[in-house]
Amino acid sequence: MLHRLKRNWHYLVVHAIGLGALLVLGYFYLSGSLVNPIRYFVLRSGTLGLIFLVASLACTPARRLFNWPGAVQIRRALGLYGFLFVTIHFAVYLFWENSLYWELIWRDLGERKAMPIGIAAFVLLIPLAATSTRGWQRRLGKRWRTLHRLVYLALPLSVWHYFWLDRDFKTWPWIFAVIVTLLLVLRLPLVRSAYKNRASVK
Amino acid sequence: MTVTDKSLKSINRRQFIRLGATTTAGLFLAACGANPPTAEPTPTEVVQRPTDTPIPPTATTAPTDTPIPLPAGTNAPTAEPTATATNTAVIDPDQLLIADMTLAATAYLEALDDGQRSISAYDFASDERFRWHWTTPGNFPRNGLPLREMTETQRSRAFDLLAASLSGMGFQKSLDIISLQNDLGNDSELYYVTVFGMPGGDTPWGWRWEGHHLSRQFTVVGDRLAMLPFFLGSWPTTTQAGLRAMAQEEDAALELINSFSGDMQAQAIFQDRTLTQHVTQNAAKVDPLEPIGVAYADMSSSQQQLVTEIMQAYLNTLPDHVAAASFERIDAAGLEPIRFGWAGSLDRQRPQYFRVQGPTFLLEYDNSRNGGTHIHSVWRDFEHDFGYHLL
Prior knowledge:
Oligomer: heterodimer
Shape of chain A: globular
Helix content of chain B: 25-40%
Helix content of chain A: over 70%
Number of helices of chain A: 12
Order of helices and strands of chain B: HHHHEEHHEEEEEHHEEHHEEEE
Number of domains of chain B: 2
Largest sheet of chain B: 13 strands, mixed
Structural class of chain A: mainly alpha
Largest interface: A-B, 18 and 25 residues
Number of domains of chain A: 1
Order of helices and strands of chain A: HHHHHHHHHHHH
Distance between the termini of chain A: 33 Å
Distance between the termini of chain B: 40 Å
Number of strands of chain A: 0
Number of helices of chain B: 10
Shape of chain B: globular
């Protein structure tokens, strides 16, 4: 038992953080202690979604840089938690904030340029979440990998969405932008082979 | 109309005028060194309408989440003009106010260097005077000099000018709205000051304070002035620390719509779902919108009082005698045709819109964004906006 726990500690950490974050959101939803619950849920779920998605993108470089195979094993869980929080983010916007009032949503999409970008990012993530199982991985074969490269588009769009929200101070969007750019640069063939060689020399 | 109705109407009208006029007159005469007015509101009236009295801009009146960007040395706003009156005979309060505003505007312009002045000052005839908006500077680039690019002294003079041009309540409300920017991650120093024409000369002049959710226009022509249109907004409507920048209008309107019984409420609600934005937007001139909702004449006295409270929340941001004159103008045009119309949810923090329209004015209040926690509201006058009637 202890051996199993020791071997799978990274799964436990991911689920503890993911479920813990869900529990916190659930607590605040049920407690009714928030003055602006809609704003709280939209902001928190969006940020959590972005953090998990960035973490899932960091798995492959982490495996190579730190020679840690466990990083790839938690990639799917991180990605799915990311998608879950982004779905909550989108659902709060659609159902709670705008009560599915399409006229209002349409005006918002036209008025705030960040909104269509956010929706585009969410739409791109849907097929990735839907085909994340081993069954779909088998069924799609090589195409699965190609399909899942959509995350390289979805994540920059998510950061762009965050960046373009009506805020003058953009410290956090900048931080996310730098991290995502770095993670994408690490995937460029030239850079990848450079640090692959370094890792093998070590 | 029955005799009872008539007497009720006359009482309401008297009350209506007194709401804005009594305290204003008292304060103004006190400033001129004269005796206080004899027609003081009764204690009961004061309890019923505590908002009649301008709220002094003390820290206790508005708990703010974060420091308001009021620079040190800014004069505390006064509820009445502060220009020295050497003669206690009849003095036009407009002249006193204009003298105050002129001094403050001149002091502001003098504090700027040439480069800043060329950014902040425009010809009075410039179309820029009518180019106004309430959204963030990112969405609607502003002309004029932002607080961010001012020195401490310049900023202090800019706030002095705002304080000289508004009532104590109006100044405090402006600070509250500005302080909400910190809550939103916005720069609370992105408020732009623009002066049109030369203050104190023989020609018309004016000035504008504008940024996210706050747009105030002032026009001076000779010894007359206009302080319309103006925009007030609030997001969020309540902060976690409990600040409510626009509580009075929100509360009074919700109380009013929920006070109507079946048929009357159905008449007031012209649309089940909220509008998606206020109708008149940033038009330079507006005409009356289609009359909708319940007429003031058909309301009970307590409901009429709520309409007055809503209007007070806006007009009492103006210097007291200007607010009183505005109430008198509305009354002279007739209270009966004023209509209150509603669209959207009847619950707090849900999307809603309401409109109060009379023969001379239009108030649009749109709280449809962000699940009913984001207010946009604008007060328009069909003739007095931008001082059209003076030019």
